[in-house]
Amino acid sequence: MAAASVSVRLQRCVVSPAGRHSASLIFLHGSGDSGQGLRTWIEQVLNQAFTFQHVKVIYPTAPSRPYTPLKGGFSNVWFDRFQISNDCPEHLESIDVMCQVLTDLIDGEVKSGIKKNRILVGGFSMGGCMAMHLAYRNHQDVAGVFALSSFLNKTSAVYQALQKSDGVLPELFQCHGTADELVLHSWGEETNSVLKSLGVRTKFHSFPGVYHELSKAELEKLKSWILTKLPD
């Protein structure tokens, strides 16, 4: 069954660069959303398009699958969770299948002439968690990783992979709202400090009064960071 899932071609929403394409950004949505939904939400929060002169932005949509926190109801999620908590095991089987599917997306960009060190991966909530698994366990040669309102479980396979790693790791840009009641700010903070202790260069940006949502200040800060990691 898992082998069949790997041949999935993800639906995606793509925003082409205004000029010559020399870098790519893969932006993963949160649970129950879609690539198009995330793109629209970002544009509403910013009150303008999230576009770049040279960076292609790819918003893939997670396939629909049974999701345990919804009592097995179907949802567009990157992987399953036993519960929404940082203190339980990861559903590694579903995470690993999706790492392979998203690797196909990265490989597609490389085949089109974009070097791995000109590709950023990141996401909101579950999308940020998926991006950390994708980069730190499978693609340590990407340009960087970003995680907005995201966390890793206390015994995450990401931590285990980094304990065995001795290469240069992609930098992490992480943001979290202090008023987040779904994914607690402390979970994000703890994730960041463990990753830092394992050799990841990272800064943790807190946004006072922000719930489990995107904010304009956060997206503007993200855009600046993207341009430092992927200069024209």
From TrEMBL:
- Its main subcellular localisation, reduced to a broad class, is cytoplasm
EC number, as in UniProt? 3.1.2.22
Keyword Ion transport in annotation? no
Location in or out of the cell: Cytoplasm, Cytosol
Catalyzed reactions per annotation: S-hexadecanoyl-L-cysteinyl-[protein] + H2O = L-cysteinyl-[protein] + hexadecanoate + H(+)
A Pfam family hit: Abhydrolase_2
Q: Does the keyword Cell membrane apply?
A: no
| Family membership | Belongs to the AB hydrolase superfamily. AB hydrolase 2 family.
Function per UniProt:
Palmitoyl thioesterase that catalyzes depalmitoylation of CGAS and KCNMA1. Acts as a regulator of innate immunity by mediating depalmitoylation of CGAS, thereby preventing CGAS homodimerization and cyclic GMP-AMP synthase activity. Does not exhibit phospholipase nor triacylglycerol lipase activity, able to hydrolyze only short chain substrates due to its shallow active site.
Identify this protein by name: Lysophospholipase-like protein 1
Supply the source organism for this entry: Tursiops truncatus
Organism lineage: Eukaryota, Metazoa, Chordata, Craniata, Vertebrata
